[in-house]
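Working notes for the structural subgroup meeting. M.R. asked for a predicted model of this chain before we commit to crystallization trials. I am recording the input and output together here so anyone reviewing the notebook later can reproduce the run.

Input as submitted:
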Amino acid sequence: MTVVRVNLVPAAYALRCRRSRRLRRWVQAGAVAVGVQIAAAALLRPVGSQARFLQRGLIDAEQQQRALNKRLVDLSVEEADLKKQMELAEHLNRKHRWSGLLSALAASLPNTVVLTRCETDPIKSGAASAQVVQANQPGNAAPAEAEPPDVARGLVITGVAVDHDSVAALLRNFNGTGRAGRCSLESTMRQPYLNGEGVFFTIRTRW
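Returned structure, recorded in token form:
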């Protein structure tokens, strides 16, 4: 038996139906795409915020690093200037101490004593009047480490006195100034001097 199917739907209507179905599928696909985009945006928003936060932190860190580098350069310049000022102050202070030491020695001389030599110990060529190491003040401990060989550790003073009492007076006066450090009599010897005799002496000081 033969079945005959007859399509009674007009062709134009069928075409519109097919177009409507395709349009609905496109709308559904578009809706799915929009939903996916919304979900992706919702997921990526915290990531974007974190990325912006990290970027701002990186910019701040770079600015702080540049400021730190500039500060280090400024500190290096300040350190160099301070070192120069300290060296100059130490140089002037040494000259001042040397001048004060010679003044104290001259003021300690009795009228019956004549100095024949005054030099640093050890001898410093050309520097006896230019560089003196600070004397140990009363109550100050001596340096624990050995001093370099080119640093003066004291004075060697030689001269001629009328008698031993004059030598003792010089030693007592110079010790009383507080500038001589440890001042001690090293030797005395009576010898002919000019038209008579004199007491030749050697005094040694230690800062």
